[in-house]
Amino acid sequence: MNTTIDTAVILVFSAFVLGIGMLFARTGRNLKSFFAGGEAVPWFIGGLSLFMSFFSAGTFVAWGSIAYKHGWVAITIQWTMCIGALITGLYLAPRWKAAGALTAAEFIRERLGLTVQKVYIFIFTLVSVFIKGSVLYPVAKLVSSSLNLPLVPCTIGLGIFMIAYTAVGGLWAVMVTDILQFVVLSAAVFILLPLSLDKVGGFAGFTNAVPDDFFNLLNGEYTFGFVAAFVIYHICYIGGNWTFVQRYTSVDSPKSARKVAFLFAGLYLVSPVIWMLPPMIYKAINPSLTGLDTENAYLMICKLVLPPGLLGLMLTGMYFSTSASANTALNVVSAVFTNDIYKGLINPKASDKQLMRVARGSSWFFGIGMIIIALMVPAAGGIVEVVLSISSISGGPLLAPPLWALFSKRLTGKATLWVTGIGLTVNLFFKAVSPWLLDFKLTRGAETIIGVGLPLLLLLAYELWARSREKVADEYLTYRAADKQKRIDAAEAVSEEEAIEVKKQNRFGLRVIGVSLVFTAVMLFGLSFLTTQGAGITAVISGVVLAGSFIPWLASRRVQIPSGLQQPEKIIKTH
């Protein structure tokens, strides 16, 4: 296979993305601007970024494997994300924004106490590094096998590249590249799908060649109980994962936070159908894959139907989507370490310059940890086993208590630690000890139900017990008193200079998105001349992307900076 064009496409897009990150090197003036976009990020940017943060090459590898083996149930499972986002938009995202914290860890400290925050920071950091490291592995595997490169150097190289622009540019660098990655990935899949159907003889040829139960909503080990538990899990995950909370707190109001979640829900209603069909179609072409080889189904259909150039585009989309997911996690883990550990515990009087240095350094530190984890994934049984197991073990115990605390005035820090500790212990017992000691292993559905359901039952039991005794947590009373003063201090701390800089940063970010989309459209148009098939649809998608570039550009023109406030240095002198 001729890989020259594919390699060139990957290198050109990668260089462009790294350049975008460097453009934002000077926009991070302080923690609020670096990690939260000045809390004025446009909601549609936050929603698209949230969507890409949830996405990765692991989606193609893990869910693609399920789609190949079991069919439509892979789409059913991903629709649980849509339901979780709808519930989040209705009830949870506005609450997070109204809480007024920069990070979820900051809210946990203020509402549940310092001890709970320390425990949660340790667990969250460990889980994030493991999960995001595990999704770096499949994209390295995809790129290395497609371009005939060694796996280990490929993993290290891709990991270092992903860390670079996050450490330099902060949240806006992550979000701008998220949008670019969303467009590239969507373009690649819209080109792949018709070519895949054509290869199998159209939709009729596809449906006639797959098993009779291939389009069942439920299939195999993915039962109704598993899907129901996954709905609850995704309410907790989308509503409470610290990575996603950052998207709700970085917009300007609770109403905008709600829109972020609703946009995510809409995208996850449509996208699974489009993205899961290619590996399902490959089942009709080659039904013989077994074991971990099913994780390669997506790559195999890409290599089969995509000509040079377009295969590089697809690999770029997969790689960028993983980059989006991993970089968002890096940004949040770094935010938690800098804001809640270094500033909160180690050096409360640190200057903005010191904090920015710690923020960028910690991004590199945790990013290298992710690379190490990625290199260990093959020994852990593959990406599906790693991601689903970590999620079932840690999701409920870690995410449910802080969400409960958003609404409850009775939950205490001590009760939170008990719920988390019991949940993690039980989940780890059934996952690691029971199969070895008792020769008993839970099904995937039971594992998920217990993992999510037990913490919620414990929280409900405590809430009912505390209510029966009319108890109100001391931590809640302290939180309410401190919250009032915090809002007063925050309102007084916002200077005119800072407000101007936030507007400038946001306008700059929107314009960079517009220019990035123009660049992507030009690249796609050029590929339409180089490719041996799919030229027409590639050119059409190029036109759609070019038209879409006007949306962020027009939005940037609506970001008005008063003419009398254009010179920040004059403001400083007059105050």
Radius of gyration: 24 Å
How many individual domains? 1
- Could you spell the SSE succession in H and E letters? HHHHHHHHHHHHHHHHHHHHHHH
What structural class is derived from the secondary structure elements? mainly alpha
Please characterize this protein's 3D structure:
The protein is mainly alpha-helical. The chain has one domain: Sodium/glucose cotransporter. The protein has helices at 4-23, 31-36, 43-54, 57-70, 73-99, 104-112, 114-147, 151-199, 202-209, 224-240, 242-249, 254-285, 297-305, 310-346, 352-376, 383-407, 413-437, 444-468, 474-493, 496-530, 535-548, 550-557, 568-574. Helix 20 (496-530) runs antiparallel to helix 22. The protein is globular, with a radius of gyration of 24 Å. It is found in: Cell membrane. It holds the Pfam family SSF. It is a multi-pass membrane protein.
Protein topology:
Blueprint (H helix, E strand, L loop, with lengths): L3 H20 L7 H6 L6 H12 L2 H14 L2 H27 L4 H9 L1 H34 L3 H49 L2 H8 L14 H17 L1 H8 L4 H32 L11 H9 L4 H37 L5 H25 L6 H25 L5 H25 L6 H25 L5 H20 L2 H35 L4 H14 L1 H8 L10 H7 L1
Helix pairs in contact: 1-8, 1-14, 3-8, 3-11, 3-12, 3-14, 4-12, 5-10, 5-12, 6-7, 7-8, 7-14, 7-15, 7-16, 8-9, 8-12, 8-14, 8-15, 8-20, 8-21, 9-12, 10-11, 10-16, 10-18, 12-13, 14-15, 16-17, 16-18, 17-18, 20-21, 20-22, 20-23
